[in-house]
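SEVERITY: medium
COMPONENT: batch folding queue
REPORTER: lab tech (J.R.)

DESCRIPTION
The queue accepted two submissions in a row. Attaching both inputs and their returned structure tokens so the on-call engineer can compare them side by side.

ATTACHMENT 1
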Amino acid sequence: MPEWSEEVLKDIVGQLFIVGFHGYIANDNIKELITKYRVGSVVLFQRNVQNATQLRELTNSLQQIARDAGHSHDLLIAIDQENGLVTRIKPPIATQLPGAMTLAATRDPENAYMTACATAQTLKAFGINMNYGPVADVNSEPKNPVIGVRSPSDKFDLVGTYVSRQIKGFEKIGVASCVKHWPGHGDTSEDQILAKLPASLNPLAIRPLRQHFKFKGLIISDCLEMDGNMEESLERVNILKSKYAPRAALFPINLPELQRQNEEQERLASQIYAKSTTVVRSSLGVTTTSSGILQLPKLPEDGTKIVFLSPKKGSVGGAVESGEEKTRVPHTPKEYINLLRTKNRDIKHIEYDKALSRHDSKSVDDAEIVILATRNAIINTEQKALGLHWGKKLGERLIVIATCDPYDFMEDAELIKNYITIYEPTIPAFQAAVNLLFGDIEPGGPFGSLPVGHEILIQAIH
């Protein structure tokens, strides 16, 4: 190791750290880390996002602190804006954009590119120059509790196609993207994060990137490359900063321009959600439109006994105190039922946990149509059991909407006759399903155009 002074060493080491903090303004802790310890990168979470004006003021203040402290480059300011299930900057601040598997379900990689461009435009407007995404894990394990719909597919070639288009989109707008997770988080039925055994401490995990794949870019991990590699690591950081964090004037947020941008992105998102909604199975019958596209029969509106079943809000995982439990979008039955009631105001709403009460069971029995929303029933035995129970009793009267992982009832064609997947439990994704059920949109492609496998078990309608 070269003989560095304490100040030079502090500068170098600080540039290799990415830190987070609490609050909507730059507190004393983050100021000290940037000023005294020369930290060169910051990551924002939901806990740092309050509104549009505040967020831009926060990123401006962080950059000003670094400039006043004499940093040679501006900060890298990063966030996890994967969209879909993991969305840090949410409506009404920014447009809800579709996540990875939703994009892949459209079977049009151009949607991935346009969504990445839109995401980068949003981040740039808020002074954020790096995104921790897209997710490049191949979700080969249907019971994966961590990745699931955050990945485009369980097929490596499909993942590669959509991820590469997203990278191009970020590159086009000028926001750095960070592909994750190395060496892979897709083939597991358990959370692989082990506090005492991070992959970044194992040279066998990092070495293939540098030596076999000849990757010369920045690797972001939970530890530093020390000793002889520090100068090389600093050089990689500076190269990235020179490209994506050039020093420029710090402006407040342009709210009219942000509103125009959000409106434009909402139109894009609406089109993509409509094209991604997948009818895996239908016993309701189909018709062919004048354009030759298959279409579900329109559900009846007011006057028909329809019951909507949705799971009660449950706990979800996430980074400790990051606010991620909010951005992973817990089930939102109030919004869901409101969307349904815009089509049929008489729909009865029942929230379920385990088994239904006798009174609720009678309401379901008496209904002409029952719409059941599930969230990851493939790893939730109570949701799965409830769905199969009512599938057996109701037959064609039951319509199941898998609001997250599409695997919930993929292998249960005998009992679940009508099965729709939307890939993420966001409001616009569910709105697209409601529109489809009540005849307001046509599905974007052949029914059953799933971006995941199990094709033999799927009874897609053609």
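ATTACHMENT 2
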Amino acid sequence: MHPSCHESQVLDPLVRANIVDGGQTRSMENPTDHFPVKNGRVVRVSSGNGHSLRTIQRGERRTDSPVFLLIHGLASNARMWDGVGDALQESGYASVAIDLRGHGLSDKPDSGYDFDTVCDDVVGVLDHLSIDRAVFVGQSWGGNVVVHAAHRHPDRVIGSVAVDGGVIELGRVFPDWNDCERRMAPPRLAGMRAGRLESAIRATNGDWPETGIIGSLSNFAFHDDGTISPHLTFDR
């Protein structure tokens, strides 16, 4: 997958995850959140492409108002939308936040990370939930997914919101791909102590709401030995 923009935050590595057992991709059948979801329903949904995606659903669907489909950025997760989902619910709107394939607690297949397949996954979620059309909202790389989905599946998109998305011409910034990869590579955080990570996030983002802190921490798996690892790792 070719990167289209620089996700600069330490919690947004430019990579995809692949959980492998004996050389085979392993489906995450019953993953759980380290931070329990409040005010939402966690539902695993078939993408229609043979994989299972974690969704967080809030609010009650009504015939007189649209559903908002919330799509996170590269290497992020559905929890980043907790605050938005709560606000939409308080305003009377239903929302569905998705962990895209390879992200968060969704399945992590070896392939299918092109825009066409990712957009088809998203529409597959709508099909599974019997939602004909929705307002697509995406952040960063998710904004690019939203724009592509509007082009590929215009009949499913009521409206599009792209937050901090877009494409830059990397050749204008970097002399070659190797230099681009080296300079844009995220820090290797696997094995860091969970407490150290949380302290660093809170110290550098003191003005964030608690939902933002939890959204960022949810980019990582928390292990029994007290360490963390990104859900999306360097092998992709």
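NOTES FROM REPORTER
The longest helix spans residues 115-128.
No errors were logged for either attachment.
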